[in-house]
Amino acid sequence: MARIGVDVGGTFTDLVLEKTDKNDRSSVFVHKVPSAPHDQSVGDHEQQLEWHRLLAP
Asked: Residue 57: pLDDT band by 50, 70, 90 thresholds?
C-alpha cells in the first residue's frame, strides 16, 4: 500500500510518499519541485512524473 501527501506552495510543491511492503515495513520518500503559481496542478503533475523517474524499477 502507498499513501501520497502533496503540499502546493507558492515557491515549491512538496510530496511525501509512504510505501508499505508485504512485511508491513514502511519507507518514506520526500521530494520537492518548483511550483507553477499560474496553475497549481502543474507542480503536482511534475511531482508525479518525478516520482515515476525516481522509483520506477
From this structure: low
Give the DSSP per-residue string, the chain: -EEEEEEE-SSEEEEEEEEE-TTS-EEEEEEEEE--TT-HHHHHHHHHHHHHHHH--
Domain regions of the chain by residue span: 2-55
Which has the closest alpha carbon to 54: 26, 35, 27, 22? 27
18-42 as b/e: b if 16+ CB within 10 A: eeeeeeeeeeeeeeebebeeeeeeb
Neighbours of 53 (CB within 10 A): 7
pLDDT tens, residue by residue, 27-39 = 998 888 888 778 7
